[in-house]
Amino acid sequence: MEASLNDPAIKKSFDDNYVIVWLTVEENTPEMKKTENPGAMDFLTKYHGEKSGIPFFVVLNPKGQLLADSYARKPGVSLDAVGDNIGCPDTEKEVAYFLDILKATSHIKIPQLTLIGQRFRKNEDAPTPHPAPTAAAVPAVKAVSTR
């Protein structure tokens, strides 16, 4: 997720529309536990992400209200309901869901959304298989929409 968001071709769109905060949670070793952000697990639990797998992201408005998260749900289902965590989107369906979030929570224009979609789709074609969800894979992400 971090590599995708930091890709120079799309990074500016995220920087211009979100305040991204990386939170480290659920590290496996005592040494790595020291790198966890204080309060990050409480944050993850508050947004029902404690059993989701990593990465897990939320999008908040400037007042801290939840606008979206990485749980794909059927239309009309409350944000309080747990869905299927898309993690770092890479399949066509996951990327489409992610782009819908971006459309609803940012001012990113269609040409740039297309580039973002193309960048995230490259993750599916990565030569290494997706690791099993572990805390060390990618931190949880909190993004605050500037919209």
How does the SSE layout of this entry go?
Blueprint: H1 2-5, H2 11-17, E1 18-23, H3 30-33, H4 40-46, E2 57-60, E3 66-69, E4 71-72, E5 84-85, H5 92-105, H6 110-121, E6 140-145
Parallel strand pairs: 2-6
Antiparallel strand pairs: 1-6, 2-3, 4-5
Helix pairs in contact: 5-6
Characterize the structure shown.
The protein is α+β, with helices and mostly antiparallel strands and 147 residues long. The chain has helices at 2-5, 11-17, 30-33, 40-46, 92-105, 110-121, and strands at 18-23, 57-60, 66-69, 71-72, 84-85, 140-145. The protein is built from six helices and six strands. The model is unreliable at 129-139 (pLDDT under 50). Strand 2 (57-60) and strand 3 (66-69) form a beta hairpin.
Labels describing this entry:
147 residues; alpha+beta; 33% helix; globular; single chain; 4-stranded mixed β-sheet
